[in-house]
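User: Sequence in, structure out. Go.
Assistant: Echoing your sequence, followed by the structure tokens.
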Amino acid sequence: FIIVGVFVVYPMFESVRLSLTMEPDSGKYPWREILFSGQYMDALWGSITLGVLTATASVAVGFLFAFMCARTNLKYKRFYAAMATLPVISPPFSLTLSIILLFGNNGLITRSVLGLTNFNIYGLWGLVSVQTICMFPIAFLTLVGVLHAIDSTLEEAALDLSASKMQVFMSVTFPLALPGVLSAWLLVFVNSLADFANPLILAGDFRVLSVEAYLEVTGMNRLGRGAALSLLLLLPTITAFFAQRFWVSRKSYVT
């Protein structure tokens, strides 16, 4: 409780206090400036769009890896599982810099190998690609445990009743794994919203709230607006959390 109070509750309280305090230089209130500014609203929708695309792509890739490791007889599964977790332990900027060196305007692959001169890695789709590579291991680690926990005799019984493999997957495996899929999606979505390193380098003219909050504090010295933008990031996170809880609570997953 002491740790949570010092490192979570108190900073949240200070963020709320700063966001409601008039700025001494301009005499304006942070929330008024943020809510009526197209720049910050664009950053909010940019963060939500980036989070949704990244979470969806990461869960798709992570589920494929998890299904391969938990439900197939493929050789060298331990090697593939180890490779799938490597992006988690890589330094924050290393993957982004390597993507720029390979696929940037003068990248090794784009310029030297493919001869492309108008390819642009900066922006939304470059960010989605890099964040998917960085964050699909989160989905993989969540989903591989979920798939291992599903009793395989249920799938065998469906096969004995003449169901095809696709029918077994769609009617038994995936419905039972759905709570884990939604949990993995929520984890990746939250991590995408909070990601700062990749958007700082690759965003280009695409705006996200994490970078905007950082620039407000370090560049403009407006702590109130930075605090308000940080609190604004909580809205899509809390919304996604309660939507996930509501969706899971609608059905029964008891076998």
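User: And one key feature?
Assistant: The mean pLDDT is 87.
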